[in-house]
């Protein structure tokens, strides 16, 4: 017996990284998708429309626009935008709360909230606690809800956590002790797991799943990049004080604490058997070693 959801799935954040991956995975499954966007004329929104995605113009501060966009949908995925200051954290909570309230008004049958690892409890990390409060609001709403809680994006290794090439050696420096395993997930797999939950081809035990595709220490991460590059690799653990923002210091403290929590890797694999580990992600993305900092 198939219980797969066949109605339209609404996606908030569809023009972004995670929401975009959810749309990709939903379209792969031939699902009907409605993207809730600020600007339907933007290039990213138009690119979605060209792939058959219905666009609904919304404003997070206009509850009527949100409820109208959620009318008659079978499921609703939302993420909340990144917060880099305490003011943005407050705005993030307002957006998440408004989206939950609109889902209540539209009587959405199932809501999947893209939260963050550790958000089942308050952690003292402001842009994670924002998601904890949104989870609490969603839980109290009475809606059927599933929390997906991504760990660090593997894609961060192409930006803020990118290894460098120094005198013929791959070097990774992170503010994380070298014996701590960092939990990580590819954005592609965030989308695939969320889509499976939205389409009811999978369930998350207890209504929540930490999204983790690999767990590796700094030296193991460096070695994975070194192996791909065919070069020696080393890891340097940096002090937290190298991070200019207290939000980021709090987050890296939590990365270390989260390593102690039981992992949902097996649950993720049961939902998405092809979930990428780091070496697979490195191969799949075609990662190549950066230019040598010394110009060698
Ligand atoms: N980096 C990590 O390792 C990591 C790990 C776990 C969780 N996270 C969390 O992931 C989130 C960021 O996700 P992402 O990288 O997928 O985001 P993203 O690529 O920056 O996309 C943000 C999306 O939100 C939409 N948006 C932003 N502000 C809006 C507003 N006021 N009203 C309506 N739509 C708005 C944007 O639409 P427009 O087209 O209108 O701009 C876009 O679709 C953050 O909450 C972060 O804490 C990050």
From TrEMBL:
Q: Which organism is it from?
A: Actinoplanes philippinensis
- Keywords associated with the record: NADP
Annotated protein name in UniProt? Uncharacterized conserved protein YbjT, contains NAD(P)-binding and DUF2867 domains
Q: Name one Pfam family in it.
A: NmrA
SUPFAM superfamilies to which the protein is assigned, alphabetical: NAD(P)-binding Rossmann-fold domains (SSF51735)
Instruction: Give the domain of life.
Output: Bacteria
Q: Which residues form the NmrA-like domain?
A: 6-260
Family according to the record: Belongs to the NmrA-type oxidoreductase family.
Membrane spanning stretches: none
